[in-house]
Amino acid sequence: MVKEWVTISVIAFGVIIAVIGVVAYLRMYKKIAWTSSPPPEQPQQTIETVNDSTARPESGQAPLKDEHNTP
Length: 71
Description:
Order of helices and strands: H
Number of strands: 0
Distance between the termini: 102 Å
Keywords: Membrane, Transmembrane, Transmembrane helix
Radius of gyration: 33 Å
Helix content: 40-55%
Structural class: mainly alpha
Strand content: under 5%
Number of helices: 1
Largest sheet: none
Mean pLDDT: 76
Shape: rod-shaped
């Protein structure tokens, strides 16, 4: 049979580990809950488009012609 002090120490060790685990989980949950809130609205950035006439052709290819602005 196992001695009484061994049983008590194993149970106490399990309780201590459980409390540490719960505290660590709650700290992590709190951190995630604060960071998951939506960020303040930022001004929208416009995306610049490149026209066919300003695009650089790859080497060895003829430049692209703009169909709308032909001289």
